[in-house]
Automatic annotation (TrEMBL):
It comes from Eucalyptus globulus (Tasmanian blue gum). This is NADP-dependent oxidoreductase domain-containing protein. InterPro entries: AKR, Aldo-Keto_reductase, Aldo/ket_reductase_CS, NAD(P)_OxRdtase_dom_sf, NADP_OxRdtase_dom. CDD domains: AKR_AtPLR-like (cd19093). Coiled coil: none annotated.
Amino acid sequence: MALHLSSAAPACFAVADRRARSRKVRAVVPGDSATLKAEEVVEEKVKLGGSDLKVTRLGIGAWSWGDTSYWNNFEWDDRKMKAAKGAFESSIDSGITLFDTAEVYGSRMSFGAINSETLLGRFIKERKEKDPETEVAVATKFAALPWRLGRQSVITALKDSLCRLGLDSVDLYQLHWPGIWGNEGYIDGLGDAVEQGLVKAVGVSNYNERRLRDAYEKLKQRGIPLASNQVNYSLIYRSPEENGVKATCDELGITLIAYSPIAQGALTGKYTPQNPPSGPRGQIYTPDFLIRLQPLLNRINEIGDSYKKTPTQVVLNWLIAQGNVVPIPGAKNAEQASEFGGALGWRLTGEEVDELRSLASDIRPVVGFPVENL
């Protein structure tokens, strides 16, 4: 993930009216995943941890929006801008209203063309001009850069993000990764943000079990719940299951937000050994890796066919079936966002969930984001 130094606060003002009435969404009827059919599950919003914030069971990641260092083949133009806008609109139309961004996504310091927060704020504003009752939940993140010290650095960065977003508050504010130092001050800053009414809920990202417990306890002393931990989690990257993070989230009532839930496209089936991903992803999901992945992809396809679902929808549903998990796949266009919506409203059986995990266990995992081990 690219890093950058947050610029000085721009001369801008929050413009969104967050008092608009919320749009009603579908309600959930929970049930036994082993007996449910695709058409029998009705989704409801889920609470993030012990907070009062409710979000859709699936969100959209905006890492690629405006980025030219990892995504978009190192270029950004009006066509890609329109595609990102289409992804936003299609997500809303599909009932997915949680959007996750960060101050470092698409930033100039990370060789981005335009900040992802700026784009998301623009899309929200334009949508609300057409439909004031549009409901959007915004999550963004603080970059724990080494020269950022103390609780005030969190508040300063948050206010910069609010300016780029054009909002007076965000729904979820997260520490993007643990700092090399200064982590207690960062947690204090999250608490201050809640008490100042700048956020509805706070979370962390890329936190291991020990850091997760420390952050939870420190916020608990102020009567503030730690709502979430956003980590890399997919069918072929199950470190949260192996390192205690998933179990700790379940124990403490912290929602696990799963980024890269379709393994940056590797689990969609669109890449083959003859057609690997372009750019930096091609160094991770190599032809050799894709050859080893094929038996799992074949079974995912077979299961998808039985539900009339795509491989992407199957692997996202696999994550949702783990419980206490909100996946946030990245959407670069309307077609992708619309497809993600098809992961909701049904459940894999318990046997299918176990079978896919077993098949995936034969695949050597890819390397994750190194800060997970700080």
